[in-house]
Amino acid sequence: MKKQSNASLLLGAAFLMATSAIGPGFLTQTTVFTETLLASFGFVILISIIIDIGAQMNIWRIIAVSEKRAQDIANDVLPGLGYFLAALIVMGGLAFNIGNIAGAGLGTNVIFGISPELGALLSGILAIGIFLVKEAGRLMDRFTQILGFVMIGLTLYVMFTAQPPVGEAVVKTFVPDKIDILAIITLVGGTVGGYITFAGGHRLIDAGVKGKEALPEVTKSSVSAIGIASIMRIFLFLAALGVVSQGLALDPSNPPASVFQLAAGNIGYKMFGVVMWAAAITSVVGAAYTSVSFIRTLSPAVEKYHKWVIVGFIAISTFVFVLVGKPVKILVLVGSLNGLILPIALGVMLIAAYKTKIVGDYKHPLWMTIFGVIIVIAMSYMGVYSLINGIPELFK
């Protein structure tokens, strides 16, 4: 019975992370890059998957073996560092949650024709409802799994109707016409950047799946999470490639919606509404849960009332969107900061992996450390580049 329960928790953690990654930005980025890079975008997806797996395996393993959340590990590495990391995560999570709520409003607008603001409000209430039930963790796992399957299933249907040149996509995945470094970094940031990579790791700690004996399961779950997000990315890429290869132009104001509409007509457009809403609402749940998990252990009051803090987090995101609209300038700045979170967090984890007071007698695989260090260097460079370009944009 315990094994079955563990399998369910591991799948839940994988889907929480994957659906946190698959948000409105994920849908738009995938479509836009497919339009510009065509079949060669397959290479970008392949490289980003390899980097994502390297980052995620390192972080989840060290969280599991230390039996602590990331902010507590960071404080053990350097006192105060956990507070800094928590501040970055919460700022990023709140700003992006406003974007996620906006996406949920857009999805309901497409499905039901109601205003995005009303749709966002209703979606926010639904997300809050998940955390008010007694078995919130289990309901969250089930909710993200069901909507994850819905998103993948609908996108698969649209992919088949778009009739993409699969052979060409396979060839260009390994022999691209051009390589776009910025696209790789954008995809990595969108899949394991900010709070996203910690969503599943912290979920497993909360559920009691931790310690050296749990490492094989944790590693499998971490790779499964990237696999789920990548399957969605590949299906959407092929759907968009099918549409673009037919010489059809995508609507620049909403590229992913036009992929669904051009491939499958009005039914496709309604399907896009469902996919957009599912992507957005699961990201709302994941961002709220993970952001608050970063401040739970830093304050006894937050630990005691963490469910209500999550509720407040979603409520604030919802009301900011409904009352103010999408705060583009805040998103620009926090998007730049988000680029720095992964290298900082992964760097801290790699240092922690070699501190016996944190991991005991655990020996971290050398190949994972080397893989992690390469990712830290590459993402640091791009994170700084993005921050330097983001701040002037803020004050324009």
From TrEMBL:
Transmembrane segments: 37-60, 81-104, 110-133, 145-162, 182-205, 226-249, 269-295, 307-324, 330-354, 366-388
Pfam families: Nramp (PF01566)
Membrane topology, from the record: Multi-pass membrane protein
Subcellular location: Membrane
InterPro entries in alphabetical order: NRAMP_fam
Statement: the UniProt record of this protein carries the keyword Transmembrane: yes
Primary location class: membrane
UniProt keyword annotations, A-Z: Membrane, Transmembrane, Transmembrane helix
Superkingdom, taxonomy of origin: Bacteria
Protein name: Mn2+/Fe2+ NRAMP family transporter
